[in-house]
Protein 1
Amino acid sequence: MTIIETPKIDLFTPLQVGPHVLPNRIAMAPMTRNRAGPGNVPQPLNAVYYAQRATAGLIITEASQVSPQGVGYPATPGIHSSEQVAGWRLVTDAVHARGGKIFLQLWHVGRISHPLLQPDGALPVAPSAIKPAGDAFTYEGPKPFVTPRALELAEIPVIIEQYRSGACNALEAGFDGVEIHGANGYLLDQFLRDGSNHRDDAYGGRVENRARLMLEVTDAVCSVWGANRVGIRLSPLQPFNDMRDSDPEATFSYVVEQLNRFGLAYLHITEMGKEAPGAAGPAFDLRKLRRIWQGVYMTNAGYDKERANAALAAGDADLIAFGVLFLANPDLPARFAKDAPLNAPDQSTFYGGDARGYTDYPFLEDN
Ligand code: 8OZ
């Protein structure tokens, strides 16, 4: 009898994601860096930053608003104007020239905004008129959040159209796929979780209704890209942006089951909040979502090489997204491969500013 050993899966085992074969399982997590130019247009510096990180198995861009209404922070890139499409084209060309793959993250912040950031000083929109605790970040500094305006039922198709149109623009900009930002307390997550959704129409109440907008947006985005080039990110236990749910296990089990029907490129779960059980609602074992999901499963939050390899070997995930480690180490895969030391991240330059703390982290060969 011959025993055939199954090779152990690790960060350097290639992975098929939709039509793409990723050379490794080291994804670059989406990270807001607030360095877009005037008009929320990506600029040459942004192309340098992403191209430096092109050895990632997959890059997921920072969240990018699908409409002027979808913005919630200074200098985040958009994907709703022709200037922005041209700016993103610099990024995709630079990443492709280095052999990388890059998905754009489609974003609408909902209530996590402020009239100072909105067209005509309008109120931010949300599922319900519930003010989140905390401050918005505006060009004039932090300002307390305001009570948002609840979207009318008749406006929901307009929101879906914003995502569809953003998806079309991302296609035109030369991306390899898109990720729907369904996480971290922004619009789709605000609809999904019952702490922020008190509606009594077809988009509120039971989970089938609260998940409706996310599923309709997914359908619209898949109609542009084909499902196998569309991923989605969820954050079941994330309290950030004043989020909670009375039953995260039921809510997220339902939505993941429903998402199975599309045949998406991947499901991306951020485990943020797992370490503070209860803050966003009763905790549960997130591996339950891995078991429900019938496709490529990406996980994220605080992984290092060792924990990532352990998760891959155990079958708890197929792909790991690294945030801060990738921010500070443009050549993270090479460093992992060689067990080389890692650069320390500088928190003071995470959000906003210039090349400093953005494109000047040294490569291994610079040392
Ligand atoms: C940090 C600061 C601003 C935005 C997210 C898009 O949490 C974000 C974000 C993170 O998904």
Protein 2
Amino acid sequence: MTKVAIVTGGTRGIGEAVSVMLKELGFTVAANYAGNEERAQAFTDRTGIQTFRWNVGDHEACLDGCNEVAEKLGPIDIVINNAGITRDGILSKMSFDDWNEVMRINLGGCFNMAKATFAGMRERGWGRIVNIGSVNGQAGQYGQVNYAAAKSGIHGFTKALAQEGAKYGVTVNAIAPGYVDTDMVSAVPAPVLEKIVGKIPVGRLGQAPEIARGVAFLCSEEAAFITGSTLSINGGQHMY
Ligand code: CAA
């Protein structure tokens, strides 16, 4: 039986590239999305990948959503925690809601998805969890105390959960992408983005498939001895 993978935020940006690459590699893919019906429909029309709508920041919705995927496609072997949002602003302008939403979705989403799937992976003796962190979780970023804290939290979460899965064939790793050409990065004001790109040694934004390739590798059989690690894919912006 083919292995079943859920990609959260899997219909756009990095998530879309991951969904497509995992499908091409023979996995059965469920692409989760939060709300953009139009983009999700267009994604399915283009790729033939089934989509499932729920908010990863909602604990119960994650449990229900993962149950639905398991009923339709089979037990979940792989989770890619990719869904994330930004609410950028300097601290003095950042509201508690801006802080909370980013923590709830970006970091809470990883917890919620793991709660829904990790026990099954351990019981079946095989699993892969790949959490999408960020260079800004490693290095910090002006105007992103919420996002940097959540992404940094993802790196700690990864190392802790990896220890719980190791004996049971379940690996837990993170990817720390740099600035990738997606809707999220396009939202950064052009002059600010120009300055950031100017500091990337490779001299350009990343492309989503360049991140997806790393995710696919961490999901492979050959990556069974890699757990609790973070793979930086950032054009040399931050060498950790
Ligand atoms: N370091 C030091 N000072 C900085 C700075 C920096 N990196 N960036 C801006 N400043 C300074 C500015 O020069 C300015 O100073 P003056 O008032 O003396 O001129 C002051 O801070 C205010 O800057 P802005 O005019 O930009 O302030 P703003 O309130 O309009 O906007 C902001 C603030 C929303 C944070 C904006 O600067 C911004 O969008 N920054 C980019 C944040 C970013 O990189 N987000 C990444 C999103 S993509 C992502 O997160 C994906 C991923 O994982 C990589």
